[in-house]
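[Automated response] Your request has been received and processed.

Submitted sequence:
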Amino acid sequence: ILSGLEVIGLPDELSAPTVSRAGNKDNAQKGNDIFLHIGSQQVRALSAIGMLLAPASSAVDAPRISGDSRKDDGDKGEGSESTIFNLPLPCLNLVLPSSTAGAPTNIQLPNCQITYRTDGKVFLVKGKEGITSNGHPLVDLGEDGEWSIDCAGRKLILKGSKREECKDCSIVDVRAEDMQKIISSATQILESDDVANLQDAWKVKESTSSDHSQDQPSKPWFISTGSIILRLSNNKSKWIEAEIDHFRANLVQGAQGYLQSDMKVGGIMARSFLDRDTQITIPPFSVHSGSLHISDSVEASVGSYSEIEELKSLLLSFAEIGQKISELQQKTTPSVLEREGFSFPLPVRLDLVKAIIRDVDLDLYLTNLHGEGTKFECEKIIYTEGLSRFEVEEIHIEFRHFSGIAESSSEIQDKRQSADSSINADLACKKVGFFLYERPDRTKLIGAMRSSSVRIKVSMIGSLIEAEIVQKLGLRIEGPAKEWIEGYVDASKVRIAVQNLFLPISFETLGASITSSSLGEITVNIPPSLMETDKEKVEPIVKVGQSLDETVEIHFGSIDTLQQMQSLLLNISGQGHPKPSSDEKISFPFQMKIQMINLSFIESSILISAEATTIESNCINIAGVSCSGPRETKCMLRGVDLNVGTAIQVKIQTIEKVVVPHIFEIVEPIKSSSISFENDSLNIVTDVAKIQMLETIIGKQLHNEAERGGSAEAEDYDIPFPTQFHVKRLFLKSLPKEDIKVQIVGVKMCLTSDDGIINVDTEETMHLRIAHANQHVDCSIQPSFVALPSSLQDISAMNFGGGSIDSCSLGLLRVVMPSFTILPDTNTVAMNDTLGVQIGSLDLAQNIQAWISSALQSNPTSSEQFSTTLPEIGIQLSKLSINIQNPPMGLIGTQLIAQGEKVLCASLDVQESSGMRASMKGVSVFLEAGYHLQIDAVNHFVVPGLMALSAPAKEISVWYTNDSVAIHVNDIHAVAHQQHDELHGSTSSKTNLSLPAPVTLNTNSFIITDVKKRYVLSVNNIGMSANQSGSTILLRTREGMTVKLQKHPDEWITSTLGSLSVLVQQENGSFKVPQKLELSGARLGPCSYGQLSIAIPPVSQHQNSTLFFRNSITLSVQNIDVMEKLRHLFDNLSSDLSGAQNGTDINTASTFDKLPFPIEIPGIQMSLSTPTASLQIESISCASSTIDINRVQVVADGIISSTMKNLRVDILSHQLTIGCIEALSIPSTMSLSCPLLNLVSRYDQGGLSVHASSPVHVDILSPDAPVIDSNTEQSEIEIPFPIKIGIVQAFVKTQSEQDGCVKLQQIALELKPTVLPQKDFLSAHVKKVTSLSLVVGDVVHPLFQARNIITSLMLRLNDTNTVHRLNVSLDSAQITAGFSSVDWSSLLHNKTSDGQVPRKVISIPFANIDEFSLSVSYQGAIVSSAANIAVPEFVGNSITTSEDVISH
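Generated structure:
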């Protein structure tokens, strides 16, 4: 046989190296392997040999091989008459032809053996090492495995080896690439004519075999002693395998000429390269007598959809292989499709099939699936995924036969080609249900969709499926609360592709309808529709309605019915639980065109018509939409695009017309708008809208109806569903007679209707410009809420979020309005925060008021309607803040309540930028013909630099009429106020005092104290007025005001003032010199210090000219002490008001620099009672910081008399210069012997200092000896302040000297007022004396000389007969010898009638003269030292007199 194989293609020389079972060339034995090249000729030769080797039939003798001794009787023992041949083959290589340029496929059977018995009944091919394909294991049996092919008995036996799983296992590993090559080679071989003829020869041989019988028992054709693992893999290490346990199959020759099989399988477990939990489990089953029944459940489990895609990709790689195997089967066996129709080859019954996908919680159950031939039935199919469940009950499928029987071979061929792509079936089920649940345990149903019985004719033509609904299909959708809608789909035809069962290619329906509902009135009618393919496009188009008469009619009883239906459909679609996102879209799988849609809401009288609607993907385009509503409300739209999903998004190219009768209409089309309907609410967005108001919104329609004699009832408006408006720029224009234009930027509001109340809720800040009469204001309104009745006749409630006026064309105006609330049934506005107003000037406030009045009065009936239709609304304001820029002032009020014509304010604070401020409590404002204010109390009132209240002023009345303010206050108690720069910044930033209007003040009394409360100024019967023009203020007072200045209860002064008129100018917060002053006169006195009367004549000043006193000022004073006390009183008062510390005096120059204007006084006449004295000052002229006095005459009886001329007072330096003292006389003491020139005096805090630079010539007068009555009480003469007198040189001449005089040089005299100490400390009598100290540098006289004489003493100026505390000291003294006693007596003694002058005796108690040295000289020459005389100290006693000193 080996030599004969050459004829079938065995190569002559086996020169190529062989490949061993392990694919290792090193183990190959050259020349031991057999290569069998399989081609059509080789197959024909092998087939011929096979027919020779096959057992002969009884009718036809089989051909014999030479040397075969087999007999015809096959009943004898094996091998008795037949010869057995064993052919061991190291490796049999079956080389298949290749249709490509690649290497051919090499099927290797290593270590195999062929056994043949010559009678043909034994023909075995077996091996122990498996089978490989191109070196890759194809059948792996393990070490102990074995495979055998019984060619005579048509049997294949696989025996596996023990594996790790402890069971016998054979592995069949099929790689896609290898199988493709094998199938390709087999196809190439079988398509040859030689092979086709061989098939016919084999059919003849089988038909004439004596073994062929219908009753022939089945014979096993496949036996597996263990498990078979069938693995399919590709080149990417992805595989899928099925483990078949104990598979045994028997074949029997059927009557129709094909094989039938009985089999028994111990079970099938399918796995893949994915996780081990992804598997298919088929329990043990058997096929007996052509019937398959699996009683246990068939289960399939996969991890996810992605794993399914992985397996699908792997299986698709074997799809071409399966297709080619099918084609090979058709070439070798009769095709199943050559029969009359599709028929399953055996009866099948599966009690339960289960499949799950774990990650999406998907379960699929099929129960009692059975069928035979062309009919199949299933009791129930249950599909659950997530929260949904799909059920189909009592399913019947019948595959229909082809009509007619093909007779001719050509007809059979055509029929076969048609059958290749056509399957027809009738599908019927009792009912179909879809259910959606709220929870994963599927215990709470939220939606269901059920259908009536379904009958469908299905035809599968190739990859296309045609389905025809032969009867109306009823549908019912149910919700969780048992609400439902019902309808039907009329007879329809649909054509779909196998690849996408949910996307029709074409369909045709006679229509569909929604007929009834538990939600309310719902009617939907859809006319006949047709899907066809557009000639220019590949995508199909659905046409709903073929003419304008065929419209889609949708009618709802109310908007609420539509919302309930939407909620129901969302629930059943799974989009209601959980709530879907707003951007989720509903996409239509194909394009639709609808001629006309009519949508109506019966209760709301709303009709919407959509013309030429096109639907593509999730976009709906409508050429035109017209809407009509109640009371002739109309709207027309063009170019409408809708995106349909859980939210409906609408884009409108043009809004051509919007009319709301009696309210507004658009004046020009609105471009680029969008509308969305989501969560049961409507949202409208547009860029620019221009609206013309038709009538006054509030009350106008009622007014017109009443005029026409119709019903006076107002119309009711309704908002069918929540509506949001968002307009970027809105222009409102009133009626022409009103001339009001409003521009609003950023309108975003929501309108809702609830129980007859329309709610308007703005969601963002709106910016407005209100224009009238070529002027405008810019405003902002924060998000707010207002509730209106449906008649729009009132305001039910309001929550205003706040607003502001940002600018005004009239001038500076800013208003910040806080949020407030209008409470229901109270009509009260409650503002919780501050209402702030900033305005440029009071004039601007009046202009704005006039502008508002002009706008309101442009339509007189409007104000009447508002007054009649709007209720009286009260206002509650927590705080009001008004700031006026010119004049600068601020006002803050708290807890304001306004109702009708009355405004109540708990507190009101006013502050002017200069620092003037006031705080009031209990303010009541009555808005009558003018404004009338009643103030319970003014707690604080401050005028910087002037006064501040020390006690609340109560019961104040203010009237504002004819642009003037009148104020009446009973009593005012104040304290002097010093303005500090740190309170108001630097002086350069001060602002002027400003009055809002002319002010008149009347008060019974005004009492003011200084800061330290030491002084009290009381003013009674006050009547004054102030009128301001710019920075100028005119102040007037009435005549008869009385003023009293009081320091202590026993220190005071009163005055009575005439009428006063002052015109002053302000600059930088300060008052300048009065421009005009008029005083009718004044009188000062009396006072507590003594008799005082000062009469001031009328005073006048005009246009910054000199202040002129018409007459002299007259003064009548009790004594000089009264004037000194008054000076101290006013000085201390000035010090306190100027802020001096600790009550000390201040330097007047620091607070008073110069006179504000020139002053002319004809004279001052002053009379002094004690001592009797008079002062006459003539011609006083004041200018700047100097005062010039022409002449002063002082006469004090018995004390002094003096006449002075050319006096000048320097206010800055406090210096008095006396040009000439013509006369000065002190009776019985001294007198000037000649005028004294150029005397300068200065007054400062230390007192009065006087300096005489020219020599002083004094005559010492002989004292008169007045008779002093001890019983007569003499008035005390006191000096008011310390006096220092400095004299350069003085010449003193006594009456006794005719020629000589005493020359004094460097004289310093100081006088101080003091009190003489008493020995009795408890004595109430106090002696006021003058302390005198005299220092003389040199004393020169012909008789004597002395140096540095220091003298101190105390005396009463009205009593020079007594000198107290005389103390004298001197450095040295000299007397000159050579003079007679006469000379000395002329110096020491007065002459009498006898020629002797009596010496005046002066009492000098307790006098003291220090010891000094007296030297004697002779005409200027010093004599010997023995001539020095030591004068001892003199100490006096209480009775010491001048005589005692002289005697000493």
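Summary generated for your ticket: The first strand starts at residue 34 and ends at 37. The mean pLDDT is 76.
If you did not submit this request, please reply to this message.
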